[in-house]
Amino acid sequence: MSGATELGWQAEIAALAVTALESYEFFRRSGDFRLLRRHRSSERVEQLVDGIWIGMRRSATPSNGGWEELDVGKLERHVRRYLLGDPAAEGIGWRDPWDRLRRSMLGRWIVSPLKGGASRRLTAGAAKRSRGAYAEQMSGVTGDDLRELKEETLLGYEHQRERVAGIEQRATFFLGAAGLTTSLVLANASLLLGAGKLESPWLELAAAALAVASACAIAAGIRAMQATMITFVRTPPNAVTTVVDRRRLKADALLCSYVGALLVAQGRAGVIGDWKIRRLASARRWFFAAIAGVVVLTAFVLVDAVS
Across residues 53-74, what is the average pLDDT? Predict the structure, then answer.
């Protein structure tokens, strides 16, 4: 990507979208903003996962309900918002089996992709291109209006940062509760062994309940750990390279560039926050299932004791 000029970033993103639409049709689901593309010649469907296109088994996926076909403008905005590279890039094949395995259906379930197909590791070119495009869009705003826009954008950026920090803090507390539940599940394993073990058929039923509760407790812990521990490359608006890029700008142009950097950083923090919220929500569901398994197991123990 040529970054020698201060203008033309919107035109570069538009050119990427136009070129991509010559070879592919693009579809997006409104709920999770998954991005699919279908080859115009072969009808093969690919999904954008972690910034890489991977093949999908069901070629008729975009024909199902809930998918929106993207035109040039919508694809352009999607590329700019999620800091994507070339939407017409070649999809991943089987050249690297390990990399392909990580992006398989199982891999996508264990570590779900970010919204919009965004990558965990950003390229400096994509971030710079989006910052420049936002700055161009605001080039007509000057004076007090521009300063007011900067304050609003800064508030939005700080809100997203606090949102991510709050999610990680709640996930840390949740991990403690999930650990106590896991200990309780493991302690109940003693009911299946030794002289004090349950009688049949409660022994078999208790073993099944213990297996389900253990699996759910482990899944809840994994999801909570993801919300706490998995980190993503972010785009701080005052990074050294970003500041250096703004060194030659003056007055309103300098402020427009700063607001553009804030918008990119705010959008990136929002995507990360959405991912962590979904992981924590999934952890809660698995945790409730683990609690239900413990309750059922306790009921079997009580019935066996009474009988």
Answer: 79
